[in-house]
Amino acid sequence: MKNYLILFFSLIALHCTAKNINIVEYGAIADGKTLNTKIVQKAIDDCSASGGGIVTVPTGQFLIGTIYLKNDVNLHLESGAVLLGSTKMEDYNPSNLIRGVEVNNISITGKGTIDGQGHTFWIPADRSKIPYDRAPEWIHQTTSPRNMLKLEGCKGVTIQNVHLKGSESWTLHLLGCDQVVVDGISIRNPLQGPNTDGIDMQACSNVRISNSDIYTRDDAICFKNRDPRYTSKVCENITVTNCILTSACNSFKIGTESLGDFKNIVFSNSVIKTARPDEELAKDAAEYIDIKARRYGLAASSGIALESVDGANIQGVTISNIVIDGAWCPIFIRLGNRGAGEQKVSPSVAGTLKDVIISNIVAYNASIASSITSIPGSYVENVILSNIIIKTLGGENKETASIVLDELEKSYPDPKMWGRVLSKSDYTHPIPISGLFVRHAKNIQLDNVQIYVDKEDMRPLVKLEDVEGFYVNNFKTDKNSKGESVLDFKDVREANLLNLNIPATIPWFSFKGNKTNDITIQTFKKIKNEDLIRKEKDVSKEAVRLINL
User: Fold this and answer.
1) Which end of the chain has fewer surrounding CB within 10 Å, N or C?
2) Cα(437)–Cα(442) distance, integer angstroms
């Protein structure tokens, strides 16, 4: 009993000593010109030293350089309050506006704004290259503040309701943090900003991101791990829900930098959209693009991107209830072997990517085929695509359909690696598949999937190469696929295809490769093999079975 009383009175004492400090009371000046770094830092230090509490930023513009969060401190920005990042590099130490290093129970809350004024450190893009195919990135000056908020090795982090804008590079960077809540924030960066990711997390665990609106040039939400100090820490137990994401790069992404593992990640109930050229934050970038000819120039390169290319293991990802309006590629899944960074083995080896469910997705105005691909000797495994509608760009010819895609084992993973989308002015070929490309994969399931091209197209709608275990139930498309076949299979084993609604006049299937085997097609119509199927000579007669139910 005595111990309990000691603990009880200790908690009361701690509560009584907690402070609520207004930075103006410490001498901060809200004129947007006077540097208040030392004053704000002292308020934070004193608050933490006294047992924690709230440091309040009232209405007004307070210019600061680098400040450090400390244990048990809530930095609270009232409505109308602005923490304004200095435009002088000598005011930063190191190159971040707000830092937290191995501190616990910290938070940034309120309806106020943190404005990094990052644009003052950018060099405009080269106007001689106009028109660009996509929103151009400005260039960083030699020295610049980079990440606006960087929290490293922290536990018990809350970022709530604040408005983050004008980051010079990554906006909110969480590195090796645990027990993180990001709720109700907005991020606003212009679409020409270089490396202006919205939220980047490296090796973080037990994270909830919700109810947030992110508008930025680079990746909107990205999980990665490139820091050798944290490659043994799994990025895990993360949920992202009820968000609106606008990006000219990737919207929701795992990778590219993937030196550590990723596990148990959920992304749900969100909208991915494309910026309009008349929006204030898109106007400067849109000046470099012929919007009428390149309507995808302000769009995200991918809506959903899952990428392991540096040896990471990605497992247990579910993505559901997402609308993707305008992203070039709705779904991009890639297992490669780039071998970047300091891998634990040499030569580098591919990791794994498995146990993924993507469901209830509507994607409009796409322009690059979705893809699930790996490299020879490795396989993406156990991926389910369920209740999905994709409407994408058609109009390609037989020449495009005949292109053979390289393996690109060590290439940077990006949907455009399989072919260009925006114009014929660059040096990349068009992609020879209109809807879905699957290569080097095992146990892939399509359930209630619909893919439509907007005009007649000579490419296969779906192309599979080296796939073992392919299951389809209720697949639908329209009459716009006019090539040799709608579905092109090479070296596909153990496939079961049921309830296909393909009103094309061309064969539904083309089978190639001497490894093709154990294919079962079940239909409710009496269709002869010669009406439905094209087989090359290297495919055995017994490889494909047609069952009319």
Assistant:
1) N
2) 14
pLDDT at position 5 is 44
Q: Give the residues across from 512 on adjacent strands.
A: 490
Question: Three-state SS for 318?
Answer: strand
DSSP state of 420: B
Q: What is the DSSP string of 117-137?
A: -GGGGEE---GGGPSBSSPPP
Q: Tokens 């550590």 belong to which residue?
A: 260
Cα-based distances in Å from 114 to 272, 276, 293, 348, 478? 24, 25, 37, 41, 49
Cis peptide preceding 17, ω within 30 of 0: no
In terms of Cα–Cα distance, which of 439, 339, 337 is closest to 379?
A: 439
| Tally of CB atoms within 10 A around 538 | 14
Distance between terminal CA atoms of the chain? 76
For 95, counting Cβ atoms within 10 Å of its Cβ (0-12 exposed, 13-18 middle, 19+ buried), the class is: middle
DSSP state of 289: B
CA dihedral 322, 324, 330, 333 (to 10 degrees): -40
Token digits of residue 479: 């009459």
Rounded-to-integer distance, Cα 66 and Cα 95, Å: 8
CA angle 508, 513, 516 (to 5 degrees): 70
Paired strand residues for 388: 361, 449
> From residue 441, how far is each of 42, 187, 361, 470 by CA, in Å?
56, 37, 21, 9
Peptide bond into 131 cis (omega under 30): yes
Residue found under tokens 């616990």? 104
Specify burial of residue 126 (Cβ count, 10 A radius: 0-12, 13-18, 19+): exposed
| Strand 60-64 with 98-101, pairing | unpaired
**Upstream peptide bond of 256 is cis (omega within 30 degrees of 0):** yes
Q: What is the 3-state secondary structure (H, E, C) of 421-457?
A: CCCCCCCCCECCCCCEEEEEEEEEEEEEEEEEECCCE
Query: How many angstroms separate the CA atoms of 186 and 198, rounded?
Result: 9
Could you say which DSSP state residue 211 is in?
Answer: S
- Are 57 and 76 in contact by the 8 Å Cβ rule? The answer is yes
Task: Say which residue the tokens 């435009």 belong to.
Answer: 87
Residue 434 has pLDDT above 50, yes or no: yes
Mean pLDDT of 106-119: 98
Tell me: pLDDT of 11 over 50. Answer: no
Could you give the percent of the chain with pLDDT greater than 90?
Answer: 81
